[in-house]
Amino acid sequence: EHIAAFCGAAARGELEKMQRFFRIGLHVDETDANGRTALHVASCEGQMEAILRMLANGIEINVSNYDSRTALHLAASQGNTAVVEYLLEKKAEVNVKDRMGGTPLADALRHGHVQIQSLLRSAGAQ
User: Fold this and answer.
1) Model pTM?
2) What is the CATH number of the domain that holds 111?
3) Cα Rg for the chain, rounded, in angstroms?
4) May I ask which residue range the UniProt record assigns to the signal sequence (predicted)?
5) Contact, 6 vs 37, CB < 8 A?
């Protein structure tokens, strides 16, 4: 129950609500009923401040969801350039594969996110 509310707060960038969950000791790597962590949701929505807070509170940057997709996969797919750039700076795994064998670069190519393709290639994506 708490993790669903935490994921919702992360998606909307509700930092104060997120902070309350941190104070009560919510384990930030927990997944919701859809197999996503709040990092996955925030990366999809481009909620940079929420991402910063989660990483500061110990969330694993390469945690994968039900499809073995990471925050980098999701940010690349959604075209969230600033999130991709930040995740790469924090050493997110650039060539990680999801359960279908897709990489963040494949997501950026499929959705035509040229700047993200360049960022990923510069970071060693193949």
Assistant:
1) 0.93
2) 1.25.40.20
3) 14
4) none
5) no
For residue 117 the two structure tokens come to 């393709």
The owner of tokens 């997501």 is 107
Rounded CA gap, 88 and 83, in Å?
8
Q: Confidence class of residue 28 from pLDDT cuts 50, 70 and 90?
A: confident
Q: Which residue has the tokens 């510069």?
A: 122
Domain ranges, residue 34: 2-122
- The single residue listed with the structure tokens 């060539």 is 95
Tell me the CA distances in angstroms from 96 to 25, 33, 124, one per residue in order: 29, 23, 11
DSSP of 65-91 = -TTS--HHHHHHHHT-HHHHHHHHHTT
Q: How many domains would you assign to the chain?
A: 1
